[in-house]
Amino acid sequence: MTAKTLDVVGIGNAIVDVLVQADERFLGDHGLTKGTMALVDEQQAEGLYASVGPGLETSGGSAANTLAGIAQLGGRAGFIGRVRDDQLGAIFAHDIRSVGARFETPAATAGPSTARCLILVTPDAQRTMCTYLGASVGLDPADLDLELVAQAKVLYLEGYLWDSDDAKKAFIAAAEVARAHGGEVALSLSDAFCVERHRDSFLELVDGHVDILFANEMEITSLYRADSFEQAADQVRGRCRIAALTRSELGSVVLSGDRTLAVAPVTLGPLVDTTGAGDLYAAGFLHAYTQGQDLEACGRLGSLCAGQVVTQLGPRPQGSLQELVAAHLG
Length: 330
Hints:
The protein is an alpha/beta fold. Helix content is about 40%, strand content about 20%.
C-alpha cells in the first residue's frame, strides 16, 4: 500500500462562480427554474452575465469547494480539474492553492475558456445555477496525476463530471488506482437532474466502485426511483459501505451496514445562501473520517461546516473553520 501523504484528492469541474442576488421575476423572465442547475453555452453565459447586477466572483466547483474546505480544516487535500490558461483559470488556481490544497493540473493552452457558473440567489436563499462548463469537461485520463491519487486515503469524485465520456474514463481509471493502493472512493451525486441523465451508469458506479456515497434527499430518491426518502435509504443500504444523506433543515442520515445514524442540523445564523452546503458537509465528514473519527463525529462536523456556509454569500467559508470547530466541538 502506498504511503498516504494526502487525506483526500478530488476530481471535478474547475469553475469560477459568479454569485448575484436576483428576484423571482428575473428567473421567470429568463425561463429559469428556481433551485435547479442548467447547462448553458458560452454565448448564453455571457448574455445572462450582462443582464444581472454586480456579482461576487469566487472559485467554485462542487468537489473543489469540498477540497478547499478540507484544507481549511487542516486536512491534506489535492484537486484535479482542467482550466484554460486565461484570467478565470488563473483565479481558480490561485484561490484553491491559497487555502493549502495541491492543484497541479496543467492549464489547457487551446480550446474552450475556463468554466464559470452564474449563481442567482433569491431572497429565500435558494440558488439557481446557470453553468458554462467550458474547459472543465475536457478532463480526460491524460490529465490525471495518478501518483497524487495513489497517495490519498480517499478519492472524491464529483457527479457533475459524469456528463463527459472522457471524464467517465478518468473517474474509473482513478478509482482503480485508488483501490489498488489501499485507498477508498467517495462519490457525490451532485444534482438530481444529473442523476436522471445518468441513472444506470451511476448505479453501476455506486455498486462497483464507491465506498462512501454523498447525496441529498432529491438525488437519492431520484437514483432509486423511490417514492420516499425512507424507501431510497433502504435501497442504498449495503450497496456501498457508507451513505451520507443530507436532508436540509432535517439534518442528515448516515447509513453503514445495519446502522442508521440521525445527525441534527446546526443553525449558526440566518439563512443567506445554500450554495455549497452539501459540498461543505462532505468536507467536514471526510476530514473527520480521514482523521479516524467515528461516524457520529463525521456527521457532526459535516453539519457544522454546512451550517456555517449557509450564513454567508458564496460556497467557501469566509471565516476560519478551525476556529469554528474549536468553538463548537472543542
